[in-house]
């Protein structure tokens, strides 16, 4: 593995596993699975060990992305020793990650949607308490930003 990417949200059961599964799919299609390591985590401990939210998994599967192998974990300091990119879904996740990050972290810590090209939003909104449309919007944003991220990663390989 030459590049490693960690996606982070609050619970690691909706947004970051969606990004994890979609980016994994795109990296596999690009033939880069041996060179890019992907993981996801949540800033909160509530859902450790759980599968992705059933609504996220169903919405992703409808677009051809399988999330069934993913299990939630919590982000921690050790992530900063390992990952080249640590990408937060919203500003609150990013603030929590900054509080956890060592001063000498040299990787890319930022908002995932910085890599989006079509959408102009800064944050992937938390879909947990809303309806199905929220999950579709997460997929739209994540697909867009994964394309931009794939380009960025390609340039560094
Ligand atoms: P996620 O969504 O951060 O995208 O995984 C959430 C999942 C669970 C909760 C909040 C957000 N929760 O409050 O349990």
Molecules bound to protein: 4-nitrophenyl phosphate
The tally of beta strands, per DSSP, is 4
Structural class: alpha/beta
Q: Which regions contain 5 or more consecutive residues with pLDDT less than 50? A: none
Name the overall outline: globular
Spatial ordering of strands, largest sheet: 2-1-3-4
Largest sheet, described in full? 4 strands, parallel
Give an overview of the whole structure:
- The chain has 157 residues and is α/β, with parallel strands linked by helices.
- It has one domain: Response regulator (Rossmann fold, 3-Layer(aba) Sandwich).
- Helices cover 40% and strands 14% of the residues.
- The chain has five helices and four strands; from the N terminus they run E-H-E-H-H-E-H-E-H.
- The protein has helices at residues 15-29, 54-62, 79-82, 91-100, 132-156; strands at residues 3-9, 36-42, 85-88, 108-111.
- It has a four-stranded parallel beta sheet.
- Strand 1, helix 1 and strand 2 form a beta-alpha-beta unit.
- Helix 1 crosses helix 5 and helix 2 (54-62) packs across helix 5 (132-156).
- The longest helix is centred in the last third of the chain and has 25 residues, at 132-156.
- The chain is globular and about 40 Å long.
- The termini are close together.
- The structure holds 4-nitrophenyl phosphate.
- 4-nitrophenyl phosphate binds at residues 9-15, 42, 46, 126, 128.
